[in-house]
## 1
Amino acid sequence: MKNFEFKNPTKIIFGKDTIPKLTKQLPTEAKIMMLYGGGSIKRNGVYEQVKSALEGFEVIEFGGIPANPEYDILMDALKIIKEEKVTFLLAVGGGSVIDGVKFLSAAALYEGDEPWDILAKSIRTYKGMPFGTVLTLPATGSEMNSGSVITRHSLKEKRTMGGPGLFPQFSILDPQVVHSIPKRQLANGIVDAYTHVLEQYMTYPAGAFLQDRIAEGILQTLIEIAPRIIADPTDYEAASNFMWSCTMALNGLIQLGVPTDWAVHMMGHELTALYGIDHARTLAIIAPSHYRYNLEAKKEKLAQYGERVWNISEGTIEEKAKAAIVKTEEFLHSLDIKTTLKEYTEDYEGTAETIAQRFVDRGWKGLGEHRTLAPEDVEKIVKMSY
Amino acid sequence: MKNFEFKNPTKIIFGKDTIPKLTKQLPTEAKIMMLYGGGSIKRNGVYEQVKSALEGFEVIEFGGIPANPEYDILMDALKIIKEEKVTFLLAVGGGSVIDGVKFLSAAALYEGDEPWDILAKSIRTYKGMPFGTVLTLPATGSEMNSGSVITRHSLKEKRTMGGPGLFPQFSILDPQVVHSIPKRQLANGIVDAYTHVLEQYMTYPAGAFLQDRIAEGILQTLIEIAPRIIADPTDYEAASNFMWSCTMALNGLIQLGVPTDWAVHMMGHELTALYGIDHARTLAIIAPSHYRYNLEAKKEKLAQYGERVWNISEGTIEEKAKAAIVKTEEFLHSLDIKTTLKEYTEDYEGTAETIAQRFVDRGWKGLGEHRTLAPEDVEKIVKMSY
């Protein structure tokens, strides 16, 4: 096990009918900006519950944050935050709204001239404007971590940011929000969380036995609840386990003391930036090819995953590893998630070269747990994903 | 899954040669009391490392905190803390030293007349004096939770306390401290952590699938590393997994949204108070009888534990449950831990009645996950443990 540091101060309030608890989490003198997305919260009752909990507070609303939170829109919110002297941000939404609020938390107290630098120059945030979240879509884990991904369409860029100042002060997780989520989003959420685990687990054995067990436990739980939640999102037992698994998949615990990969996300982000494909689906496109391409480096963990998560008991390490990738694809297909690029766009020729070139243009850092994957490796992996 | 709230702000600094990082964790103006136990830290090099990290700080030392931290000794420390206007407490030790420091953290800022009331009247601490820990003995998990157990020999009492103000600000976990721990303490630590998991897991199925998986993962990890660490405490891979498993066993995560039992601890504490038997060994005495006595209520989870942790695949639910208890006893015996009271004291007759009476005298609250175990149940369970 490698050395690690861990501190996650976010307060989680989890369970049925917990949104009214919001009132007591807010500083009494706060001037609040409440941010949300495309308006689904107005149809599923969350908006009313939040507004009711905010009675007596000074609140400015800012709706319309899109999936893949857009820099230009967030800059409009930032202007209002500064003009109106907002002191507390409240994200009501899924990962996109929360990620957007994290950028605003950082940007509101940023002392440089150009907030884009936070993303372009990977400036870490040690102190942001305090914020909390009411989660409406389990998937990204953003409700209990300090990372964020922001998109800037005018540059076709999708960039990451973060820092210890960007943990939510609290996050309210009422699994009943799952009841009204469309199947497509549920499937995306399951795949997003599942891939988050894989990115932190599918590397090389690092002697972190407990972290492996917990990672496998999240995967097993997602596999167990996936058909239930897709069949009936009002199944509270399935919804609550889905929601908590998504949070635990990316709250920092399973990455402690282990190498992490994240190459699937790096390549996937490019597919979203280029074609607007749902984040989770880009992961489903890339992951199987990535694991096949890197089979030699990852086969021990792939086989362990096959044995423990998919009960694959026959064959050599390599055979088990390959069978585990097939099982993963079957799981994705069972959620009606397609796993090749050509099923999403006819315009896929040249994508591999374009993505490799984009990495080169940004200054190549090397991908994968050893940071040894070169542009030509990326090109091959993306081509295998066509 | 039940509703829950969770916030654990302790910063963990984990790994090889991490004790020098202590310097940067302390407030620069702090007047520090460094507390430790019987002096093993002076033999294993930890004392020197800590002193070196404390260079330049104003430090008062207070050694001699015994296993089962003793109220009267802690009151001596409290007097010095007040006289010398100490502002920061540093626990260098195992669970006993850390628990003692938690009591002092609470008592130092307690406004009542009689600090014993914090224990006797279960007064929760919302703000304590800030403290950190350097862990020298993996076992109790006290380094990442806000609970404490204090003994007062003059009253033959062992009482619990806690509150959100009693999380360590930081805990430094260097698995190399394990290298010099005697076998007896290593076995105690494994059993302590193992039983912590059982108390939060071995109840009735509550639909918290992920918490179950994590609990099972900790048990599997402890089973995996136990023979290695007993055979060779300098096995760093085993030591690091042992240490992290002990922390994760009682940092709050696996109890989220599930019923918890803790009856084994409640009865075990009495055996320590009466006979001075090592805490972990009292748990090993009580646990098998407790699970046999409550088989009907706990058989689903016992069988699940048998299947997933011990690979028991044959038999009915009840047969698997019984086999799982036998496996647990065999595991304890493999660590050279005896599981009946008579192996620890010849003077055991009447113990069951005495313990039941002590619970009655304190005001009976009911034990077990349903809080329905009566004094006569306790009497029977303890008798089964003779």
Note: DSSP finds 15 helices and eight strands in chain A.
## 2
Amino acid sequence: MTLTAEQHAEIEAARAASHATRRATVPALEDILFQAIPILDHGFIRVIDYMGDDGAIVQAARVSYGRGTKKVQEDKGLINYLMRHRHTTPFEMCEIKYHVKLPIFVARQWIRHRTANVNEYSARYSILDKEFYIPAPEHLAAQSTVNRQGRGEVLEGEQAARVLDLLRGDAERCYDHYMHMLNENETGLPLDPGRSGLARELARMNLTLNTYTQWYWKTDLHNLMHFLSLRAEAHAQYEIRVYAEAMLDTLRRWVPLCHEAFVQYRMGGAHLSALGVEAVKRMLAGETVTQQTSGLRAREWRELMETLGREE
Amino acid sequence: MTLTAEQHAEIEAARAASHATRRATVPALEDILFQAIPILDHGFIRVIDYMGDDGAIVQAARVSYGRGTKKVQEDKGLINYLMRHRHTTPFEMCEIKYHVKLPIFVARQWIRHRTANVNEYSARYSILDKEFYIPAPEHLAAQSTVNRQGRGEVLEGEQAARVLDLLRGDAERCYDHYMHMLNENETGLPLDPGRSGLARELARMNLTLNTYTQWYWKTDLHNLMHFLSLRAEAHAQYEIRVYAEAMLDTLRRWVPLCHEAFVQYRMGGAHLSALGVEAVKRMLAGETVTQQTSGLRAREWRELMETLGREE
Amino acid sequence: MTLTAEQHAEIEAARAASHATRRATVPALEDILFQAIPILDHGFIRVIDYMGDDGAIVQAARVSYGRGTKKVQEDKGLINYLMRHRHTTPFEMCEIKYHVKLPIFVARQWIRHRTANVNEYSARYSILDKEFYIPAPEHLAAQSTVNRQGRGEVLEGEQAARVLDLLRGDAERCYDHYMHMLNENETGLPLDPGRSGLARELARMNLTLNTYTQWYWKTDLHNLMHFLSLRAEAHAQYEIRVYAEAMLDTLRRWVPLCHEAFVQYRMGGAHLSALGVEAVKRMLAGETVTQQTSGLRAREWRELMETLGREE
Amino acid sequence: MTLTAEQHAEIEAARAASHATRRATVPALEDILFQAIPILDHGFIRVIDYMGDDGAIVQAARVSYGRGTKKVQEDKGLINYLMRHRHTTPFEMCEIKYHVKLPIFVARQWIRHRTANVNEYSARYSILDKEFYIPAPEHLAAQSTVNRQGRGEVLEGEQAARVLDLLRGDAERCYDHYMHMLNENETGLPLDPGRSGLARELARMNLTLNTYTQWYWKTDLHNLMHFLSLRAEAHAQYEIRVYAEAMLDTLRRWVPLCHEAFVQYRMGGAHLSALGVEAVKRMLAGETVTQQTSGLRAREWRELMETLGREE
């Protein structure tokens, strides 16, 4: 994370202010409001604003006139019920806004979640900072040999060193040429007053995909959980998963009852197919079921055995 | 507007609370937070929660670290610029939530705006109150003879009385039969312990479309303005327009700079077609232009003359 | 279903036409194209248009230049994989459009699925037909005593007769008064030339919620399946479930491989919570697990036992 | 545009097929179906599938049972009316699907239009081709000195040559290193069997933003026109505008009446602010209006004068 002194000062100034409000307020989330939580080598997430709390979910589900949350036990039961039965609209009644700094190739995955509001830093209008993502050595994974979109062993020694050199060297060279083509130094003055700078909207095309960008990203609680269920999950690419994991932690601070239900019924649960349910029923009845007799294909059988914690 | 004493007390309790927050806060909107603003004979809108202010629009447009709003004049200029050039994403960074009580036929128009979150009172689960919309005499309009979806003169005398009798009588009878089929009184006890009540999800079909329902409705500022540009406008049906007008007033309290830009560039402006622009150019050049020489059809010419405040 | 002779003729004319196209075409769906499939007493669904087939899902998943579908077995495997792993975007590449006639109270549930395009018949502009939904005697269910939004026993004898009388009588009376207030007969002429008709946008409020409306409804295959997973399911209200079931049948005709995967992995499967998975693991290990030792609440335990086909 | 012989053959095979259908069919669009229309140096758009035609807009607006389009003049009038009065839902009843090959920095702008379905080629799963966008000399524009997101004069001579060298050199070097890190040649075999390849999901981060990607992109006619109104417009970046212009041409083939209305009422028209309308009224009344007396700011006044074709 690379914040300038000025940015630090702005954040601290925002944190120092306190206002009176009639709105639902969540002290545990207020505690970290505006703070940059570091992710990867130069990235971060910051919670910038939020609307609603656990009580707001309950209030909407009941279309009530007051605040609810008198009896925590009842609210908890209702939130669990809504989560289990896919009653999603009450969760849409809460909203959160993040400021995120992230590599462009991660941003390209993230933006595919369409039900959100986004304001990205414009490289058509402004100049991007000289910051690129370079993986830490322990995340420099080889291509998986069994899963076409997975990672295998970590590269080591000379191979790893060579990859890091290439990534760093290419990103730096491309960035330096970007500034050269723009003909600007970091304070916006021409490097060489004798020539014109290439249009920003063109020069940016020379940057590599690990260059950092940033955006404001705002979504409702239901869609946030959908995002987290896909991106905080084991099969998500590591570089987006670390963002999702940090956001999962902000979810816990913000709406603790909802977070608990989410972990219990969504993240921690398992979906069985029709044949999978059939196989479990037969196993519970004492029958010995094999992949062949289950009717499941090899891969699905393997996944089912994994879910059930059984040796194949 | 018909609030029970209990509902009044809940609203007052919510209004009495005050919390400390680091979030952007808008005193002019806090002033009316939770209060029911009466609409039609039994309806209302209440602002239940909000996120962001004029400064949040500016902050998102600049993807900044601090709060912005140091110089009101600059913020105003930027907001005007964003509005004029259809840069819609910064406006999506603010969010507002309403509790609305409205007749079902109005709800059916309203729900067509899809980019919003909605939690409606469930007549499958609960019993609706005995409240219907009956137009005030001055809104009892005849069918327009020139516009198939417009209103003409106001009905008067016996005709008006007859219509009001029919509307009131049918709504009451249908509601009473609804309760009879449910076999419940207002406290939920069986009217007649000797028989079963019809399922709520079925009995509700007997209600008339002027029966009041209610919902929580949450949307972002951009989509709110889109809604208002269509529903606070002269051609909108009166019964939805009064809701939109009251919401336009909450917009003014919430984000005054944005409201001003909205009125100047969206609500108060006019869209000319290519031929319309051509006609204006020729008129400004001193040429006498008629419908025939403009190439516009009669109706479009009439609308253009109206926009330009000219006799035809 | 009540189609006029003219409507029948229009449908037959559309069915008689045949055009040459380079697009993917599905004969089993073409067979029923435009035909009205009756639902409830006066409703129907008609498939009006479609885009894509099973091959289009595969083609999009592979971002290929040709048509795919050379080897059905491979396509089937890929579609199963996409369905199991929630890769939803390839399913969004197919689109279908229905013409639906349905009671207003069903339309109000249906419209809550926002990711669809809708054109409804406008009662602001035109006059609705005199058609209401009256449940068949075997669907006249009492309120469930255990589930607040469910149905219990079927009403019988006098009670049933009374309910049907009320529903029919109120719907007819309200409709007749609607026409009276409009002051129009069915051919659009004034009933009484001596008085004005009430504006259509107002008169419609006198209709009951079982009045039939109609709309064009268009959605992509992913969102169609989401709709069906909620509405063709056992807990959905009968009056919307019958529409969903008829649409499930059109899904089978249209994209048979996708339909099979949908039934296997979505409709026919089961979602277990984290504690549910834990309980199954312990049971498979030979342990006797009870509701108390599972950590599950009574209702969740009951649902789990039901899923696993076990006595409690 | 760089299609392999195999891709050409697949396209030709798809074009050779002809199927019988009852659906609305548009010969002028069928003529170019599947054909790659070249854009920029290696990009293209191809229309892959479509649903509906001008008649389908009319049919939906009327919620009719037949095909409409009997009287072209009436359909034309209705489509114009719908376009002028922002009745957008009938336009949502048509759908089109493109296959697009485009530079990543263009894809990043494009994807901000959220109301569309997208399937992008996955560089997590597969290897991208060695193709980058290098601007033609006449599009190598300098940064505008008056508009922070615009272009100025075209670079020439040595400056231009230097920029092209940098763009080409950096893209090639980055791509070669990408293949080196992957340790794969173009047929998927290891370059060096003695070492592991870096995971694809990591290696891709070394590519520059002018690398070509491709996707299937599907949207409804209303949202297509919204996209075109922003991207086929003079202020759009050239590199996305050329795609939009080619798509505008497919719009003309597909729905000629709708295209004409779109050009007349949307693309070719002008939006005036409230003060702008006021100024025009006064000018038409013979008054001499200046920027100062108009109340407009300098920039808005300039834009108004431009719209009206007047010297300032």
Note: Chain B touches chain C through 55 residues (CB under 8 Å).
